[in-house]
Specification:
By secondary structure, this protein is α+β, with helices and mostly antiparallel strands. It has eight helices and twelve strands.
Length: about 240
C-alpha cells in the first residue's frame, strides 16, 4: 500500500549516498525510508557552498573526501558510525505532504522527537519557525544553526539536523544526529586561520549535543546507532 513505509539499509560511500537513491528513482510513488551506513569518511558540503570553505591539504592528509549534497545548509562530516543517518522519501500527494517547504518538516521533526523519547531521551522538541543561528558558524557548519523541524534541547542545543531536496515526484528528507559531539575533526578541515579555528570549535561545542551525551546527562542508558534508527522507523506516522 502507498501509505506503508518501504524500509531499506543502504551501505555505501558518502558520495554515493548523497548523490542518488536508486529505489526511489525506480519507484517514486511509495513512501520509503533508508538507514544510511557510510563506508568512508567524507565532508559533505551544502548545495551552494563553494569548495574553498575546505582546506584541501588538510582534508587530503586526513584521508577525507569532499563531496556535495543537493540539499542546502552547511558542511557535515560523515564517517562509519557517525552520524546516525536516516533518509525518508515522501511522494507528492501523500497525506503527509505539505507544499510549504518549512512546514513540510513538521511531521518528521515530531517523529524524531518521539523516536528519541522511546530511547529515554526526554526534554527535546522540534523547532517551529524560521532558521536560528546558534553560532556565527551556522552558514559554514550544518549543526551550527537550527532550522524548521530540527530537534533541540530545552536550552536550545541542536540534536537532530534535517534537510530536504524536492523534485516533481516528491521530497527526499535527510535526518541525522550524532552520538557523541566533538566539532574538532570537522573544524580541522575548514579553511580557517588558527584563531578562527579555535573560536569555531568553542562556539560549536556548546551549540550541539549528541544523543549519547544526553543519555549521560539524563542518567539513562546512552542509546547507540541501531537503537536510534529502529526507534525512528517505529515512530514514523
Amino acid at each position: 500500500m502507498p501509505d506503508e513505509w518501504r524500509v531499506e539499509v543502504r551501505i555505501e560511500d558518502g558520495a554515493s549516498l548523497h548523490a542518488s537513491w536508486p529505489a526511489v528513482a525506480s519507484d517514486p510513488t511509495h513512501r520509503c525510508v533508508a538507514v544510511c551506513r557510510v563506508t568512508d569518511t567524507s565532508l559533505a558540503l551544502g548545495s551552494t557552498q563553494p569548495e574553498t570553505v575546505v582546506d584541501g591539504s588538510r582534508a587530503h592528509r586526513a584521508g577525507v573526501s569532499v563531496v556535495r549534497r543537493s540539499s542546502g545548509g552547511g558542511a557535515v562530516l560523515v564517517a562509519p558510525g557517525e552520524p546516525v543517518w536516516v533518509d525518508v522519501w515522501l511522494p507528492v500527494g501523500d497525506p503527509l505532504w505539505n507544499r510549504e517547504v518549512d512546514r513540510a518538516f513538521d511531521w518528521l521533526g515530531q517523529a524524531w522527537v518521539e523516536a528519541l523519547e522511546r530511547t529515554g531521551i526526554t526534554g527535546v522538541s522540534a523547532h517551529r519557525g524560521g532558521s536560528v543561528a546558534r553560532t556565527r558558524w551556522s552558514s559554514l557548519v550544518c549543526f551550527g544553526g537550527v532550522g524548521a523541524g530540527e530537534v533541540v534541547t530545552a536550552d536550545g542545543r541542536k540534536v537532530v539536523g534535517l534537510a530536504q531536496r524536492r523534485n516533481r515526484h516528491g521530497a527526499w528528507f535527510q535526518g541525522a544526529c550524532v552520538l557523541r559531539w566533538d566539532p574538532a575533526p570537522l573544524v580541522e578541515l575548514l579553511a580557517l586561520d588558527p584563531a578562527e579555528r579555535l573560536a569555531a570549535a568553542s562556539g560549536l561545542g556548546g551549540a550541539v549535543t549528541g544523543v549519547a551525551d544526553l543519555g549521560d546527562e539524563l542518567g539513562v542508558v546512552p542509546p547507540d546507532g541501531p537503537t536510534v534508527t529502529s526507534s525512528v522507523i517505529a515512530s514514523l506516522p
